[in-house]
Amino acid sequence: MTTQVGQFINGQQVAPQDGNLIDIHNPSTGAVCRQVEMASSARVQHAIDTAQAAFPAWRATPPAKRAQVMFRLKQLLEQHSDKICALISEEHGKVLHDAKGELQRGIENVEFACGMPQLLKGEHSKDVGPGIDAWCEFQPLGVVAGITPFNFPAMVPLWMWPSAIMCGNTFVLKPSEKDPSSALFIAELAAEAGLPPGVLNVVNGDKAAVDHLLEDSTIQAVSFVGSTPVAEAIYKKASENGKRCQALGGAKNHAIVMPDADLDNVVNALMGAAYGSCGERCMAISVVLAVGDEVGDALRVRLSQQVETLKVGAGCDNSNDMGPLISEAHYQTVANFIESGVSQEADLVCDGRGLSVEGYENGYFLGATLFDHVKPHMDIYQKEIFGPVLVMLRVPDMQSAVNLINEHEYGNGTCLFTRDGEAARYFIDQVQVGMVGVNVPLPVPVSYHSFGGWKRSLFGDLHAYGPDSVRFYTRRKAVTQRWPSANLREGSQFSFPSHS
Amino acid sequence: MTTQVGQFINGQQVAPQDGNLIDIHNPSTGAVCRQVEMASSARVQHAIDTAQAAFPAWRATPPAKRAQVMFRLKQLLEQHSDKICALISEEHGKVLHDAKGELQRGIENVEFACGMPQLLKGEHSKDVGPGIDAWCEFQPLGVVAGITPFNFPAMVPLWMWPSAIMCGNTFVLKPSEKDPSSALFIAELAAEAGLPPGVLNVVNGDKAAVDHLLEDSTIQAVSFVGSTPVAEAIYKKASENGKRCQALGGAKNHAIVMPDADLDNVVNALMGAAYGSCGERCMAISVVLAVGDEVGDALRVRLSQQVETLKVGAGCDNSNDMGPLISEAHYQTVANFIESGVSQEADLVCDGRGLSVEGYENGYFLGATLFDHVKPHMDIYQKEIFGPVLVMLRVPDMQSAVNLINEHEYGNGTCLFTRDGEAARYFIDQVQVGMVGVNVPLPVPVSYHSFGGWKRSLFGDLHAYGPDSVRFYTRRKAVTQRWPSANLREGSQFSFPSHS
Amino acid sequence: MTTQVGQFINGQQVAPQDGNLIDIHNPSTGAVCRQVEMASSARVQHAIDTAQAAFPAWRATPPAKRAQVMFRLKQLLEQHSDKICALISEEHGKVLHDAKGELQRGIENVEFACGMPQLLKGEHSKDVGPGIDAWCEFQPLGVVAGITPFNFPAMVPLWMWPSAIMCGNTFVLKPSEKDPSSALFIAELAAEAGLPPGVLNVVNGDKAAVDHLLEDSTIQAVSFVGSTPVAEAIYKKASENGKRCQALGGAKNHAIVMPDADLDNVVNALMGAAYGSCGERCMAISVVLAVGDEVGDALRVRLSQQVETLKVGAGCDNSNDMGPLISEAHYQTVANFIESGVSQEADLVCDGRGLSVEGYENGYFLGATLFDHVKPHMDIYQKEIFGPVLVMLRVPDMQSAVNLINEHEYGNGTCLFTRDGEAARYFIDQVQVGMVGVNVPLPVPVSYHSFGGWKRSLFGDLHAYGPDSVRFYTRRKAVTQRWPSANLREGSQFSFPSHS
Amino acid sequence: MTTQVGQFINGQQVAPQDGNLIDIHNPSTGAVCRQVEMASSARVQHAIDTAQAAFPAWRATPPAKRAQVMFRLKQLLEQHSDKICALISEEHGKVLHDAKGELQRGIENVEFACGMPQLLKGEHSKDVGPGIDAWCEFQPLGVVAGITPFNFPAMVPLWMWPSAIMCGNTFVLKPSEKDPSSALFIAELAAEAGLPPGVLNVVNGDKAAVDHLLEDSTIQAVSFVGSTPVAEAIYKKASENGKRCQALGGAKNHAIVMPDADLDNVVNALMGAAYGSCGERCMAISVVLAVGDEVGDALRVRLSQQVETLKVGAGCDNSNDMGPLISEAHYQTVANFIESGVSQEADLVCDGRGLSVEGYENGYFLGATLFDHVKPHMDIYQKEIFGPVLVMLRVPDMQSAVNLINEHEYGNGTCLFTRDGEAARYFIDQVQVGMVGVNVPLPVPVSYHSFGGWKRSLFGDLHAYGPDSVRFYTRRKAVTQRWPSANLREGSQFSFPSHS
């Protein structure tokens, strides 16, 4: 019988009992590997209530003591790394070594959370006026929620809840229903690490659960990562309901290749950045802008050579470079984009369709695909494909490349390949993108910086994880204090007071 | 003929020409003192376009050079202080010494903005990975808007635009149409201080202008201060239109008076905090919670004695303690609240109605009003009155007082009067309010801290002015940089990269 | 045969071979428990050379990777906590539960060091001039040394080297020759945690070793904790030799007891703070200032009652409150102080001399001692005794108490017992002491703040551990960068340049 | 009669009365332009006593109020800029436009000091333990002293005292006796700006005055800028006397010119950086390292061409590029260096000796001098010349250049000219120098960063001005606070306390 996955509430697994089960597929085989219960509204409410009940005691726990849980969690994540990666790979399809990279990034967010006593420091000002001191405290919000996508089932939750709970909040996580098991297992590890029951709760569900979270008046804030249309809808709804919200959406990340770039490095970098995790990363490079035809021609040759040797196969085999797409439906979406590229007269250099992996004939495998001579009006340029499809445009100079990037709807990540200091500085300054790489194809900020795109890649003003997450998950409280002398007589002041 | 006030666009006054003029009254006399043009949609658009045109050059101006404008503006504000205060007092009604206090606070925001080179520093990390550096830059957003209330016509605009433009943005301000002249005059001073044309623009208008700003796609962010219903509506609309927004709303600020408090101090503090500026301050104390009847009885006696001696009169006479309300309509609203208090059986100790100021018989004067034995269900307790009406409730102990505050809709400011360190610490920790005073009746944070309430007193996650404003008015850009060796060959990496 | 302790160099124990062995006594029994080799000059030089050799690779290791060693070290310290505490207790004499407290504090310094990637961030300024950026990096110094005292043989080394090496330095530690074993064992744990050989080295020795470290030109900085005369000498010598130095010295920490203090709490707090670890703590309370005779009389009665019930005995027995002094010589010093108190006519309320602990007759036990009516001129007030001797002075008011503290040679720690907010604020503001407690008898800053006294309690400008330690163990490097356009011609500038 | 310059004590000029007058020469004419009194020991003591007397009230003045003085001082410095520059130029000899650059930099330090309320913020931690809060305050030291050099008579004092006094200290400045008038005049402006008497005092003198300052027990800290031998002596003496000290010394700043550098830019940059202010700047470029003979040959040609056109003459004529040296004695020192270069067989390309300026035949003029093919062992390479002498070495590659820099005694400033991002990053990382420029010849950090060299260019751990100066001029006070419940009974704790 298929294993059934339920919820994690109040420090323990809650087995399915509401009857609404959906299948989880192994994308490498196409087979159902588990079933997950879509939590009923009552169950979601129970999770929220539990989190609310746990809040006062957790809020009163000193940050340094909270941090002990994070220190232990780091150990447990490292200790159980193989199991977590296996769960990720089985449900998501990505190759194990890639799952390992994902988990490592998640662990780094836990490491950052260990430093919370330092990060939560408020600002203290002696003598803002005669005998008057002022300071601010960053206090927790209460119950906050996270809604996370399928493509990084372990990492993106770890962007959110470790920081949120270390700030003193309690948390309800709704992971993707396509691959929830790693997040659930990590919640168990958190409990083992000493996290008090109710501080972290995981509920599975679909739009109904999301709506419940967005409408509930207990939830104070929502962090979301997913596609832009959903991010926008969630941001609006959360804002409408008086919650603070940060909603991270889609991307179309461009790499500019300058004539002075080391092409061997560029090709290696692009192969990983475009096709790693089958292109299902919001930081994947999906557009390459070749500055000059010489660069374009050379890239076309070298990339297509590399694509030939790319090893596509099941996620559980570490010798593979790339695994399957997440689902049959998504396979079709990506294939349709390829078709649209052809029909809009882009130059299809490598066609990943029709790939069959021996022994995994029902897996959702699509080979690495490369288009050249793509034009800005084409759908394969305009839209986020979220698959192993790299499109190349030829541009005459760097300014044209920067213009293209700045005119695009998305502004998540970008990269410039060059050796030239001036070009790099100009690019960093001018490009309308939140995360900028110079010779770094996937400029995902390390855990002690913050992650966020610009334009329609992020709704909200604070970025994810790192320093911004501390501000997002806390409320500023400003205190002004003065101790009166017993015998001091003071005249009433009817003017607006100026301390200084 | 009545002076007609227009807009301030592209570095100069734009005389009314669209024909839609409304009257500005002097609340002390009831007479029309000016007329202000409600900007047409085309005019608002012109202001936005002007700001957008000024953006690239201003963004490229080094912050230390931008700051020179602020240094000069501080001088000019001090130099023209009498004129500014006269404008404030004439159109708003507050007494000149109170206008001076307001302006002083505004100047302090300009002083803070002078320090922007220090405040804009990003975080730099060497060696986030082998040979890889990362840093963040806080870049300006573009054109941002501010919508400000009548009660601090000079100060609240200065909360916003100095910080915003020092971050490199350009600005469109829409001040209150009831008293726009001080903000317009200050914009002229900014131009005199060297602010390039188009960086700061002021448009007058009503809901139509506000809607234009909220719907325009050029505007990147909106700062608002006003009543809670409008704040909420603006926050929703701005969020819906993809803008970042901070919307500060109303308040019902409670002061708790403990039995160990020095009552002379308390009474003096409460008189100013409740009746200063006629109670038209979002930080006014409008509720006093007497802990124990002994305190309550004593306060009742002393407050009513003080009310007797309170001098109410025209704003232009510095010997007055309190001026008129802003308008006839608002006078009626406040008077209705008093009536409702009586009809809901609160104990009306001092009744400010029926006051007539000699020589100013048409002014909107309402005397200081005090209710005792008010109950939580009454409208005069639940609602923000925004007038010189102080309501007292008797509570048996401090916990009851804290509970009342935490259950109230608003969470802007609050104050505890005590000598006891433990009581203060408990209060600071537990109270669900953004700005907390200990023996400081109006705990408005100084300019180098940030201003913001909790609950329905603020929509958004970042507070006004101070450090939070720098984060609000900038976008974080995360850069990751690596310089390749010419001869280095690197294998493609298909796993998700971990720098460390 | 007695175990012989050597050095820890280049990642491993170096057995004694230079022949210069001295005895380590167990203060509870008086017996020799180990012998420790005083490193020869060649051996000390070897440790320095080893540290220097390890520097380039360690400096180039990304901070986040360095931090992995700290994460593992924390685990190992917790795992081997019993063994470490046994070593501490055996060689120092303190009771095991007290050793546990010491170790816990040391572990917290390791936790702080785990956050180094965040702490090492430099400041980045875009556009300090047109097209010019500037930032600073905090780079390691090279080889640094720590010289630590007997009284916290595990904790004080952990104040220093975790922060120092996480900043990228390599380290030579010279622990106290009286109880070196816990520091040596912890160095082994660090190696087990993955610290590369040579990054941390431990040499045992006396003044000759210290002088070697202070004179060697490779050593860049010295951290010292010990008595004031030695601290001063070390600071001068290090400064003379061009090293940066922080040298923490002695203390005479006063507690003020106000009439409104809760005396039960005060007495409990004072008992622990005065007699814990036999008073051999630089943060021990050794002077109590009773404000008013009523307080003084009450304290005298209650403290002497408590002293009666104080359980003094061997460090290995966790039921004891207090163990022996560190050595026979130190016993004599403390006993002489008691004698001097008597001869200078202080009022000896409790006399700890003549105590004999059954089964431990050769231990260096001295009972808790209390003097009342002590005067400022007496030696027992002027000098640091570093034993279980508490002296009480009667003062008429708080100002007199503050004056006494401010006139004393030392300024390490102090505490005020009161309930009064105003008294606390005044005390914090006015007292010339580096670490101030309000109702906290031992105000040792937590690991994410910094530790340091004022006046002759600290030589140097930066405090120990916490944020100051990051600044102490790094050099600021300021970078100003501009990328020229190829074709830009610029005139020479002979004036001193101003970027803005 | 020659004007006689005295001291500035307690808010006013003190005319000479002690009789010990020395001449101030105008280096452009060689004539005596003023006489300055060397303060007697009693006078120096009076300045110290005055500063001490002013300390308590100034310390208690809120930082925001102190800052008002800085805001006004900035205005006054701008308003009196011509007079200040005339004084600088007359006594120092530098050309007026260069004096203007100097003053501008000094004003920027005043601007930084205006932001002190923000900069003085301490760190506040809620809940370091159950119910325990902790924070730190940065409190002033007391009376601090500054000793400044002749080469930037207005700027270097402004590096020090604005920051020091804004931190709440009071100050005694001893400027160079060669050109004290600008510093004295600026002190008058500070008084005019509202600085209370005694907060800033200026005493003139020589080694006797310096020794007095270093030996006086009231002085808490000393900032010094001058030559390395004096810096070292002052650092040792101050340290010996228990003062904190930062002593900035000499320099030999190397510029590396890479083959890909834009030579037109390089030549322009080097001309200004080597010969501006006659080379009497601690940030002057005095060594150029040409990478490859092609670069070396080209630089030799172009630099010598530029030297031909360099206009040398009186400081008061703004058309000049370079003025005289500071004194006849210094002229001889520099001339001797040139002679030694010749005798050690360096290749003298341009010889500045024998220059005569028409109308200024008694001025201390030395023309721009260029040596090529200099070797590392030569005195003109090893020693700081502090004159208009640029020496060029040829090196085969960048690594050789970096090695030379790292082996030199000094480590103040350096610059790399290149277009290559990798070269820049390697240089920044590896070079053992405190202030690093990339295509910026004089990488003096802007006022909101800090200034300091490495190796024997700076003694002390904190750099001058900017953020480090705030730490240097304050003492950290760590507060730990807990408020007891009245009825709480707590057991004594004899173990070392761990808050968490």
TrEMBL record, chains A, B, C, D:
Domain Aldehyde dehydrogenase: 17-479
E.C. no: 1.2.1.27
Pfam families given in the database record: Aldedh (PF00171)
Listed CDD domains: ALDH_F6_MMSDH (cd07085)
Magnesium listed as a keyword: no
InterPro entries: Ald_DH/histidinol_DH, Ald_DH_C, Ald_DH_CS_CYS, Ald_DH_N, Aldehyde_DH_dom, MeMal-semiAld_DH
One GO BP annotation of this record: thymine catabolic process
UniProt entry keywords in alphabetical sequence: NAD, Oxidoreductase
Residues making up the signal peptide according to the UniProt record: none
GO-annotated molecular function: methylmalonate-semialdehyde dehydrogenase (acylating, NAD) activity
UniProt name for this protein: methylmalonate-semialdehyde dehydrogenase (CoA acylating)
